[in-house]
Design brief:
This protein has 124 residues and is of the alpha/beta class. It has 2 domains: 55 residues, Hexapeptide repeat proteins (UDP N-Acetylglucosamine Acyltransferase, domain 1); 44 residues, no CATH class. It is built from 5 helices and 8 strands, in the order H-H-E-E-E-E-E-E-E-E-H-H-H. Strands 2-5-7-8 form a 4-stranded mixed beta sheet, with no helix packed on it. The chain has a two-stranded parallel ribbon with strand order 1-4. Strand 7 and strand 8 form a beta hairpin. The longest helix is centred in the middle third of the chain and has 10 residues.
Length: 124
Amino acid sequence: MQHRFQRRYNFPELVRTKGAINIGNGVWIGDNVTILPGVEIANGAVIGAGSIVTKSIPPYSIAVGNPAKVIKKRFSDQIIEQLQEINWWDWSEEKIKNNRRFFETDFSQIKKDEMFMINKVIVD
């Protein structure tokens, strides 16, 4: 039996949302994180434990706090752009196995002004 209050006030129509939550590939999300509707957490982002994500987080950024704020990028803009272009998360299992060197590369150690081409590391 439906309660009279529920019939009179249709709650689903009153609920407003800003949209779906979209989480990219290779994202790390800590414990007890709250992500609000309409937020996108882009590829490679890291969200610190206990954070409340109220706005979208850019690719390969580290965000923490309440509200979550980007405190730094994981890599240089050049490396981030290249990682976004190669879409390694869409590779076949065989290609991933053949590119062990790529996954062992510490991209954070590459200096911002140093020219580095990820494609030189990748084996087709």
